[in-house]
Fold Response regulator.
Amino acid sequence: MQIGVETAKAVENKRIFVIDEDEIMRAAMQFMLHDENETHEAPSLDWAYAKAKDWPPDLAIVSEALVRVRGKELFGELRDRLSGCKILVIAESSADGFAKQCLEDGADGVLIKPLTIEFMRRKVDVLLGRR
């Protein structure tokens, strides 16, 4: 067992998809969350949509780059194709208003880089309905 991991969360088995084309960022976020969640690295939306048929996620974590390419329509598409899961966007900065716009457009939460394990876990817990 890892230090700081709550057993109740670990056995609750909430499923998270980390959707990002950047392999290093996917691996880092998966590492931060895997002790308390069933966390899967999704290299593409197609991968996530295919896996969601058998493994619907409770939370999708998406990169700013993906949202910028796909636009605000991505949020509705994710909810439809991933069984209504919550959506968390990882943003590069809060300076340009992108994070606020994501929340207005339908994201359930935004995290600003640099990411820390504690803050990432806390934000995920809130979105998953944990106290």
Remarks:
- The CA atoms of residues 4 and 118 lie 9 Å apart.
- Residues 7-125 form a domain with the Rossmann fold fold (CATH 3.40.50.2300).
- The helical segments are 7-12, 23-33, 45-52, 64-70, 73-81, 98-105, 117-127.
